[in-house]
Amino acid sequence: MERGLSPLQAIMHAHRRVRNGFTIAAMDDISKENERILHQVFNERSTEPLDVMVERAVNVTESFERQGNCDSSFPSLDGSCNANGDAARSMKAYTRLVSANYCNGRDSPRCAANGGALPSERAISLAMRSNTQRTISNDVSYAFTAWGQFITHDIIQTPDVLGSGDVPCDCTGTAPQCKEITLDNDPVITFPCLFIIRSSSQLGQSGQGTPVREQINQLSGFLDGTTVYGFTSKHRNLLTDSDGMHLRMQSVKGNHFLPSVDMINDNGIKDKFSTSSALNDKGHAELVAGDTRVLENPLLSSLHTLFARLHNNAVDQLRTINPGWNKSRVFAEARLFVIGVMKEINYNEHMPLMVGNPGMAVMNSIGRGKSKNKKRANPDGHVPPSQDNPSIRNEFAAAAYRFGHSMVPDDFKSANTDMSQKRSAKLENNFFDPDLLFRDGAGACLRGMASMEAANVGGHYADATNHKLFKPNTLNHGVDLLAINLARGREHGLGTYHELRDWCMNHDDYGIMYNGLPSMQNGWNNVRNMYNNDGDVDLYVGLLMEQPMQNAEVGPTAGCIIVDQFLALRGVFSSGQLNTIKGWTLSKALCNAMEGMGSIQANLFKKAGTGQNINCNSRNMAGMDMTAWRDESAQSGTGDVGGGEEEDCIDRFGNVLVPPEGCSCKNAKKNKCPGICRDPKNNGAEVNIPEGCSCKAAIKNKCPPPAGFCFHKKLKVQFEAICGDGKANCKRAMKNSCSDICHNGDFENTLLTASKPEGCKKCKKCIQDIDFSQRKKKSGKKNGK
Ligand code: HEM
Ligand SMILES: [Ca+2]
């Protein structure tokens, strides 16, 4: 928990939590190097040819070590090996549907086509608010919206430029890493300005051969369970239980919750998952998941809980069905199952409601192989999702898929088994606060999510997101997510609404989603009049204000961008596994993994009361039939049928082990490789093996003389202790009960032996010059004994 932050610092802290993932040092180094290259080209006017500089930037990014193995039959963690050129793996730049539109043609936020200033993002946000009505969807529940956020967090996280301090923007418009949003007599917000930190980027080259700033995706862009498992081996290992198969959980009031930061012994985890006490103000320990945004709102945290539990349930099933599978195989197959279920829900339940008949017509026609996007299926399991470029599109990340922000309501709810309301909580008081989740449990929260209404997509955000995003408990407002989204689009140099609308309308496959020019929602004329020229309208503004397509939540231009993206990310499973996954819906997942379930919508994304319900108590709903995953070669129960990925070798404490050639990681973890010796009872601390002694004996402090060194576990030092009988007896030596030595506990000087004064029986009693009080204080406090 971060305490003592000013209100603005607390907001910044939360915003940074949303933007910056659980990285490893190599990733941060790559980001810094990329910024350096950008600076060289844009500010120092490097004389090297652009091609050379771009190649250098690409090489920098490529230097990020793969978090997986291309020979594996399982998808890698970071999305590497899934597509040609490792497209869409973690740390790759976004691609664009239309050329970048920066004010200076290279890297400065977009301006009006005539070079003039655009209206302030906050002014547009307020104009959208006052010119539009907020209406409630007749079709979808809040689960529809929440799912969009959960999927976002699997495929997209654009990090801030590194190295900016607590409040790095001062509203003077001078700091290069800041994109400021000017305020003019603001009705609610009391800060001198709003601001965002610019997105970390890489040097790219536009179609016209000019250098441009291209933003980076920190995540694996594939829909591959990043929210559950993280995108680095280190993170995945820290989330894995000591049995190597289950995900770590904590039990609270008899139910499984995500693990708390206190349970995971890693400073990076504490750093990236802690929240500010001005938001998380009831003092709950933060929860840890595969994504750093897990606590952003309590219903999102509940969805994370659902999929972690689902993984663990799948592990239990797979172990029964295939007792011969080894641990890493069980983990990998459970992960594959979880990813399969997520995809099934996303493509079968979520997308049809989002893009409606027109969008699904395009999805289906291309899926059946009529188009250039045709996929190749591989009957043996995981298949690269796309032979085309599956990268995340900038227009999708920075505008189109943010449509869900306008659907988020002010009041979040939990529900009882019969779906009646249990509790209502204001979102403005629950950003980065797991209170609702801890009070009512994940089951009640997800039932609440299904019972809640969602607003229609449009220009009128809820108060919680329009004025009070990340509101600290000491202030009566926060910041404006709508203005932030607009600033982000400009800062990324996104094309305008007209540019994207034209691209989509003229597209061979997507043009059919239009029926002439899209019709716009009420208030459109007033909003577009904010701009000097129609051609300047921000992409996000146009997307929110198009009338939705038939049975869709979004209009044709957002639909086009979304369909294009999800076509690129679609993958294929083997037919047997596909049959298992086919039956899965979000409601079935809730029935399987959530406590207190009764009757809920069959399609959870549909507004309660508008469609069929199902009862979780029917066997078909709550069960998990994994027979298609049965492996005849794994029925013997020896636990040696492998197939898991080969990864960096990291033990369960997160220590990176480097097995010498010819020794496996498995053996390294078991202390069976020469030169590797770690104490499992001491968080895997390194133990030196004295010559002529074994690791096992060294850990137990049982190495005989002359090798006789003792390892003091608490102080993590080795010392020499040869008792009077000539034997090394560490236990006795540490207790000062050897016949001839006393020591003062100051083991920092490694080789400390003191001879016992003559006639002395107990060191403690007879040695004055050895300061035992010192020792007591030191080790006594440290060890709490
Ligand atoms: C309570 C609900 C939500 C909150 C508080 C929230 C907040 C945020 C914030 C603060 C950002 C970063 C903005 C920036 O600096 O550019 C963001 C990004 C984003 N959000 Fe949300 N969001 C919510 C729900 C949703 C939903 C429902 C969707 C989609 C259906 C969504 C999609 C996105 C996308 C695509 C991004 C861009 C991610 C990136 O580039 O890193 N969000 N959100
Ligand atoms: Ca992913």
Automatic annotation (TrEMBL):
Residues 366-391 are annotated as: Disordered. It is found in: Secreted. It holds the Pfam family An_peroxidase. Its main location: secreted. GO terms for cellular component: extracellular region. Keywords: Glycoprotein, Heme, Iron, Metal-binding, Secreted. One of its GO terms (biological process) is response to oxidative stress. GO terms for molecular function: heme binding; metal ion binding; peroxidase activity. It comes from the Eukaryota. CDD domains: peroxinectin_like. The keyword Transport does not apply. Heme b binds at H405. SUPFAM superfamilies: Heme-dependent peroxidases. This is Uncharacterized protein.
